[in-house]
Amino acid sequence: MSAGAGTTLILDGITQRYGTALAVDTVTLDIKGGELVALLGPSGCGKTTLLRAVAGFLKPTEGRVIIGGQAVDHLPPNRRTVGIVFQNYALFPHMSVADNVAYGLAARGVGRAEQKARVAEMLALVRLEHLAGRYPREMSGGQQQRVALARALAVRPSILLLDEPFAALDKNLRLDMQIEIKRIQRSAGTTTLIVTHDQEEALSMADRVAVLNAGRLEQFAPPTDVYDRPETLFVNTFVGTANVLHGRLATGPGGTRVVALETGGLLPTVTALPDGTRVAACLRPQHVAFATGGEGLDGVVEIGLPLGATLVHEIRLDGGARLKTAEARAAGARPRPPGTRVRLSPTAPERVSVFPDSRH
Amino acid sequence: MTAGPAMATAGPVAAPGRPVRAWTAAYDIRLALPLGAFFLVFFLAPLALLLLVSFYADPGMTRFGLDQYARFLLDPFSLRVLGATLWLGVEVTALTLLLGLPLALLLTWAPGRLRGLLTLIVLLPLLTSVVVRTFAWIVILGRQGIVNAALLGLGLTDTPLKLLYTEGGLVLALAQVQMPLMVLPLVTALSRIDPNLADASAALGAGAWRTFLRVTLPLCLPGIVAGCLLTFAAAITAFITQSLIGGGQMLFMPMYLYQQASSLNNWPFAAAIAIVFLVAVLACVTLLNLVGRLSRGYAQA
């Protein structure tokens, strides 16, 4: 009955309109069996709408959901073999932990003896065997989440959906649960979709990250690619932090490409875009180096902060723009005092990503 | 309740949601004084008087004795009236629940504007006088009433049906009159249920019926109990509706009591009827409350 481990999930051109508002704009995702994919984006980007479309709670205006090679758009949620863990867990408050986990099995007509065995197996998986008789209100948030996970996995869903699963947990517990869920997901081999607005969560857990903004898919790639080679300005600024400087592309001496900044100065880069293109150039703080001589952007230190292992400076460039820098802090190193004149350059031209400027 | 020293030492760091005893104890009694005095003068004192009168052995109220209670409890006619009244309450409550639950579900799921309209319709009976509502039912159910006129006009019947002065007509009229008392607690209970629970149930493979029976219904049990209590109490004591729609052939406790007190001037027997009725109703309420107690654990944190 269950499609078992490694079911593929395809979202084919999903569009969702509410009246005239476009919540999701032709999003296509091809997810491999057993893969853990994070839908990452700010609130209102359409990630929850996508999740609800996969679960069958809403029928998208356009597009198809294909689970294991079969279109499921005509199927109601209870016929889709999709497990879901809600942000608030949505455990049945009038049922014990064991009854919660057995609920889906009973609904699918699994025999009593097998129900019991499967409940025991699931509770062992989430390490809650000893709390089978408890009620949800008698448990901590982390325990409730594990019950919700056990309940969703008990029916051996072909797809597992997690809606902001860690938002309600405090920070210490969050990391434990992330590791726990990754472990459980690996051992069950279930194709999993996590909705989150937390980039660290997405980058640390997912095999691939789908970054969404205003209903559009901005990038769908492994976490390292999303971080190192962002395809859009939005991805570059939403995932990790980035300094954004505006300017126009030009070719510098020796044929190297540079961004002539609006505020003055040249920033070397690598790009296929033609000269004269107005661009937004992104440079992550840790890719800004203090140059001792040669070329660079001149400015003065506004403030320096020793943040434990890193040293962060905010520099006001001579043209008026501000730039953050971050560098590893050597033992005993102190921030440069405000007012110090410095010259900055990217650690490598490839570290400066440029995107066509959409500003007017 | 024992507000022992252990509670007092807990101080202002008591568990959230639990009132801090030391603070409230000093204030709540004084704040409750006006209401307490009101209840004492207008509720407890008359009740005590009623109890006292019921212990007179004769209508002339000259000597004490349990004669009135013996007369009621050994008289098959009186017991039949009591039984008929309680049964009427059960019938009305059952019908109100049967019609009220779908209405409450509709109200809970309805989008904004429709919801307002439905709420108004549900509340409307509360905004009109009982007498007016009852006469409306007479117009609807009478021999020349709307229902009979429609049935005759459609050729579904040759002679007008007897709808008024029947138990069926009375149950129907009472159910309509008491509907808000059932629907409002139900809507409150239903709207407190996390909508994700129904989605979770569906995602786990449950169909709409299983979700309703296993999740929605158990979780709104406190609302069902509250609605049934209110409807039951209101139905069995609905003197005006019972008398006007029920007519002369059916006798229920309120009318029985009224006859004894007003027409026959037998105050001690009327008082005994009142006390027996009160005890019977309290027994029913306690029973229902026990069911409610069982469902208390369902309330969400």
Automatic annotation (TrEMBL), chain A:
Pfam families associated with the record: ABC_tran, TOBE_2
Gene3D superfamilies noted in UniProt: 2.40.50.100, P-loop containing nucleotide triphosphate hydrolases
Residues annotated as domain ABC transporter: 9-239
Entries under SUPFAM superfamilies matching the protein: MOP-like, P-loop containing nucleoside triphosphate hydrolases
Ranges for region Disordered: 327-360
SMART domains, per database record: AAA
Keywords: ATP-binding, Nucleotide-binding, Transport
Compositionally biased intervals (Low complexity): 328-343
A GO molecular-function annotation: ATP binding
InterPro entries tied to this protein: AAA+_ATPase, ABC_SmlMolc_Importer, ABC_transporter-like_ATP-bd, ABC_transporter-like_CS, Mo/tungstate-bd_C_term_dom, P-loop_NTPase, Transp-assoc_OB_typ2
Family designation: Belongs to the ABC transporter superfamily.
Name of the protein in its database record: Spermidine/putrescine transport system ATP-binding protein
Organism this protein belongs to: Methylobacterium fujisawaense
Automatic annotation (TrEMBL), chain B:
Keyword Membrane: yes
Domain of life per record: Bacteria
Transmembrane segments: 31-57, 77-110, 117-143, 163-187, 219-247, 267-291
One term under GO cellular component: plasma membrane
Topology term for the membrane: Multi-pass membrane protein
Gene Ontology biological process terms, A to Z: transmembrane transport
Keywords: Cell membrane, Membrane, Transmembrane, Transmembrane helix, Transport
PROSITE patterns: ABC_TM1
Domain ABC transmembrane type-1: 82-288
Location of the protein in the cell: Cell membrane
InterPro entries listed in its UniProt record: MetI-like (IPR000515), MetI-like_sf (IPR035906)
Family according to the record: Belongs to the binding-protein-dependent transport system permease family. CysTW subfamily.
Protein name: Binding-protein-dependent transport systems inner membrane component
Lineage of the organism: Bacteria, Pseudomonadati, Pseudomonadota, Alphaproteobacteria, Hyphomicrobiales
